[in-house]
Each structure stands twice: as structure tokens, then as C-alpha cells.
Amino acid sequence: MSTSGTTMIGTRLRQARTAAGLTLDEVSVRLEANGHPLTKAALSKYETGKSLPRPSTLLMLARTLGVRADFFVREPTAQVEWRAFRKHASLTRSLQQKVQASVAQIVEGHVWLEETLNSRQRHRFPSPRKVATPEDAEAAADAMRKHWKLSDGPLESVTQTVEDNGCIAVCSSDVPPNFDGLSGWANGEFPVLVSSARPSIDRRRYNFAHELGHLAMNCSGLSEAEEENLAHRFAAAFLVPASVAKREFGEKRRNISMEELMLLKQKYGLSMQSWAHRAHELGIIDAPTHNRLFAQFSAKGWRDREPVEFTGREEPVRLKLLVLRALAEGVITPSRAEELCPGCTGEAPAMDNTTPRLSVRALRKLPPEMREEPLLQGALVAEPDYKNDAELTSFEAFGEHDLHV
């Protein structure tokens, strides 16, 4: 294999290991337990491209890291540049890298499907607006709504809205509890918005709107904390424009009842506490009233769990639709479909890295990019036979004279 191929395998190994949240030592221990001893130093050489693993080693690494063997030899289709990472201070750097690597694998498959199936269809994401003040963030949120031709009414689904306008939305349950959201760009073209699947539906809506704000605003020259505050303002304004909040509350209020906040949450999918904060930041209520409302939230035990839930659908569906379309059109195999979107086909994902046998005719009918997988799997399966059966290897290669016998 060429040097570039060796480097690619190393890069993919490191990506898979990071996504699995394992250190080199931990991978070595697991391989040892499975009867395939490999030192940390050897693994490091594979990842840095200084050494090339044998097919049997790649197969064991695939099983250990929870990927298919052909993942290591498949050219990446997307490079993700992360723009913002919203998390608690307790989230370690290694866990941050795990989240980014695991999401990058999902995004890579999504981009490949988009470019394969919809190469001529592209949504234009507006250029980020220069933002420095809360009022600028409000304007940026209003501009995004107008760009996407949204009314000022409640958004039925924030997730569907961003997906319908060309964003890649990922709602992941495979993230730490202290992770909130993540945003970036895939290949400099596809906006990527990530939310944890753990919070309530209204929180997930807010997370996607918040990450959208990071991509819609240009906060150059501001601190990270200042940018976070402006992204919060963008999210609230995107979910409930200022004109809507004033229409619901009125221009000025001395007090707001909890019953009002409950109804507004159920109508707009914005939490009761965010509604109270929204009223304060727009000058509808003063600071003492705002503080009094939050004292009530605390007294009632509603800071962590509010008494009513927003009922809506905030699950990304774009990837599943793309996978099912590609499968129906014969662009991908069922096993590849399950790799791209586990559970999409209703079948349990096969993690034994096996592939159904294909005839030569069936193999030739596959798209070129899909032929490597069964060929590699066949080579991996056949390798032990060639290593252990001398009759398969104790022959001389054909020479030119053999053609004339």
C-alpha cells in the first residue's frame, strides 16, 4: 500500500479509537483479552503511519473499536471544522474529543449521501452577520427567519426547520451528561448542529437554535463568554421574536403568572424560565419582578423540572430518509445502511464485520465505491486459510512461457 494509504489507515484508526473513547493502553488490553496481543507502541506506529497493520489485525481492531473493517480503508468524505462547543466545565478534553470524533463519523456519512444523491441541490446558508450587542443578535435571528421564509409564529419543529434548510442536525444520546451542544462546518459547506438527546424536548429546541446562532453570527473580537451570551440571545429571539413576546405579554407588566408561562411554553416550545428571562431582557418586566419569578421557580422545585412539558417532535429524520432512499435505489447495501444509520432498516446492526457472499456478477453491479467493502471482507476471511494451508501458497507464479504451453 502507498504511503498515503498507510497514513489514511492511521488517521482512521485514531478517529475510531477517539470516537470509542479508548486510550492506546485500553485498546491494547482489549486486544490481549481477545487473543490478539498488540503493544501500545505498535498501535502508536499504526496511527502515525509508521507501520501498516495486517488485514487480520485490522479486523480485530475493527471489532474492538466498534466499526466495520472497511472503515479504515475508506477515504474520508468530510472534514469537520468545529466552531463552538457548549459544555460544562467538568467535561474533560478526552471526552470532548470523543464527542467530536463520534459526531464526525455520522456527519461523514451524511455528507457522502447528500453529495451522492443530491449533488445538484444545495441550500445557501446566509453569510454570518457581524454581531457585537444583544440587539445585533436579535436582528441576526430575525434575519435568519426571513431568509428561511418563516412566519413569526411558533416553530412546529426546530430540528425539521434547520434540516429543511440544509443543516445537518445530530441529536446524540452517546454523549456525557455534561455536554449540551456543538456546531461547525463540514467541508466548509454543510452547517452542522449537534444537541444532546438527554434533555427535554424544549431544551433540545433551544440547543439547536443556540448552535445555529454560533454559525449565523460573526462575533470576531469578542470573548468566548460574550459570544455565548449572544448565542443565548439569538436562540431566544429565533424561537420567540421580540414582536411576538410583546404581543403575548404586552409592552409593560408588573407581574406574570405561572399559568401564563405554562401556556406559552406549550405553545412556543420555550421553557417557562426562558420566557421569564425573555420578558426581562426585552424590558417588559423589571429586575425585581424577574427575580421574584425565579424565586418562585426555586420554591416550587421547578428550576430543574418544570410542571408542564412541550409536546413536539425534535428528532432529526434527514439522515434516515437519505439512507432509506440510497438503499431502495441500490446505492448502498443493507449492512452499509445500518452502519450509516443504526436501526434505520429495522435490522440489528451486524458488528461481526461479515458481509453476505456476492457473485461476481452481483459484485460488478455495485457502484465502484461499494466494491471495496466485500472485497476487503473476503480477503480478511481468506487470510487465515492462506496462512495455515501450505498447498495454497506452495506454487510458482505463472511466467510468460506458461502462456505458450
UniProtKB/TrEMBL annotation:
Residues 13-72 form the HTH cro/C1-type domain. InterPro entries: Cro/C1-type_HTH, IrrE_HExxH, Lambda_DNA-bd_dom_sf, Rad_response_metalloprotease. SUPFAM superfamilies: lambda repressor-like DNA-binding domains. SMART domains: HTH_XRE. GO terms for molecular function: DNA binding. Belongs to the short-chain fatty acyl-CoA assimilation regulator (ScfR) family. This is Zn-dependent peptidase ImmA, M78 family. The lineage of its organism: Bacteria, Pseudomonadati, Myxococcota, Myxococcia, Myxococcales.
